Amino acid sequence: MEQQNSAVKQAYLNEFKGNLFEFSVGSYLARHYGLESQYLEELGPEFRKQLKAYERLLRSKDPELLKRIPLLAREVTSRICSHDRSVVKSIHLIGKVAGGKGHSSFGEGDIRIGCGESGERLLSIKLCKKNSFVNTKSGGIKSFIENYFATELALKLQAQIADTLSSSFFQLGAEFYQYYGLEGWNGEFDSAWDELSLPTLPGNLPAPLKKLIKEHYHRVIKEVYNAFLAIYQNDPVCFKKALGPLCGFSLENVEQVCLFHSEDKSGRYLLSSIKNMNYLDFQNALASVSLAPLKPKLSSFEILLGEMRLQIRVKPMNKFTQMAMKVNCSVRF
After folding, report:
1. Is the full-model pTM beyond 0.85?
2. Is there a smaller number of Cβ atoms within 10 Å at the N or the C end of the chain?
3. Are 231 and 91 in contact (CB under 8 A)?
4. Residue 315: beta bridge partners?
């Protein structure tokens, strides 16, 4: 329970950190273009009240981070504006906390820059630890392949993944019930498991069961890998087309801006590097695509695109005692 609570708290802290960082980048951009009052007015009092609550929480949990966010945001703004000669008419925060992220017309955008007749730019802003993977997409495993590839072959492959997930989960549960001397396994972790207060998170499992759950993940990712491989070999055009959304480029006017900060002996939240990639950069990376071999015992595999790697990983949707799993996509430069 303690580990679960810690994981939930960290997830909230990451969300608050991300929201404050997006807001700060938007503020510096608006200030740079003389649009700060318009930017703040559009957000409204309720939104600013919410940001204040995030600031209070971070001040109590990680005051160093709160202090560094504006400094890092200023660095990102400088990078964004350094080669931009467009006439900017408006700056809008459209991240999740502002109610815009996830809207189909904004794609992965967190900040929308209105450029008058020349259209608009959508910025996807990320604040990440140095050398880490950057999350781009996540979806339920039972519909992931058909959602992103949308072909008859994908439908067939999706059904095969569902069958493998079901049989693998049944095997996992039977092995877990046998380990604890429980009877009556019928395909779901029932009240007998709860009554004994047995683990529901992988980190709380004893070593023998951690090994078994990793084997379960590998059985499932192997089927996902086979699906990607089949599409890669049989329909390379469809395969490449799907990589755009999976890497965070659902729209052609999206630009990714990732700031990587230190988290080591050199200090915390010190600028390490800034990586920005637009749609054209991504298209160039697609010129050299390959599917790396699936490694034994892992719950993930990688797709290589030039200097970028797209990682596909499976993990429980919530607790491992539920069959539901999700596919997480992340990139590393």
Report:
1. yes
2. N
3. no
4. 326
